[in-house]
Here is the input.
Amino acid sequence: MIKKCLFPAAGYGTRFLPATKAMPKEMLPVLTKPLIQYGVEEAMEAQCNIMAIITGRGKRAITDHFDISYELEHQIKGTSKENLLEGIRNIIEKCTFTYTRQNEMNGLGDAIYKGKALVGEKFPFAVVLADDLCINPDGDGILTQMIKLYKKYKCCIVAIMEVPKEDTDKYGVIEGKELEKDVFMVSNMIEKPDKNKAPSNLAVIGRYILTPDIFPLIKTTKPGKNGEIQITDALCKMAQKGMVIAYKFKGRRFDCGSIDGFVEATNYFYSLKNN
Here is the structure.
């Protein structure tokens, strides 16, 4: 049902300077795989096979990563290192990758709007922010969980998690009523609200299922927080006109856009490898 997954990947990654001066933040490795590969693998598990990536200047390493490196493959062919490329080869064989650029950093809403040319205007699509590294070692991945929920509700869905009240100014925060366990009908969404004005402690993280009717809403959304076009504001308009679902997912999320979260993710995945 949902075959396309959009990856906004045009940000500068300034919190990781100078490492991200010449390397996209989405290519930062957690153990031996870059962040964006984890996101693509999560999308593949959810039966998506068309990956639409919004890039920017200096992001060619992403394009190269999801392509064949003939010289490298020739060098390691027949050696013990050859099997290290099996995972990325499988991705390249099974997925189609399309790209476009976000020429200016005008916010996540603008990046998703730029993806309209890649995902089209007929079918729902997924959105993954690669620096939110998610894992559910006990079952379905987060995107798979959300697509199953979409089959029931047929509307836009955002993934949410509980955060400390003092951290709500770092996220989009939802207000809504619980329809069933861990599933909320959204009545309001606020991007990075002041701690004393947050309607709840349920914060949106980088996983979305969006329907094509989000595009005209983004187009008419004025710049909001930080002077950027926020997807939160467009989804808020949709919630007031129709229905948007917020889903408290099963699993863990690591904020790999921050140094602390990146180190936490590295340690966690290393512990999984050695257990």
